[in-house]
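Methods — Computational structure assignment.
A single polypeptide chain was analysed. Its primary sequence is given first, followed by the predicted tertiary structure written as structure tokens.
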Amino acid sequence: MTGMKAPKRDALLLDGMADKLDADLVYARADRTLTQAAATEMAERCKQCTKRDDCIMWLVNHDGGAAKAPPFCLNAETLDFLAMNG
């Protein structure tokens, strides 16, 4: 993901993590399980993350999906909740 602008890169990582966990962020926003404020906070946490390389490797290594977000993910709690309640 070199050369990609940070906001787009972070959004792709967040979307990728949600996809692997089967957490539908669009549906969660539509049914208001995920508020706009919470979605913005998730994006901000991704921007602050220092584990982007770990995130990329986790996504690559979990091509078939996963039951839980990795412990290093700053959005793990929210993503796991959305995956279980989506």
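Note: The mean pLDDT is 92.
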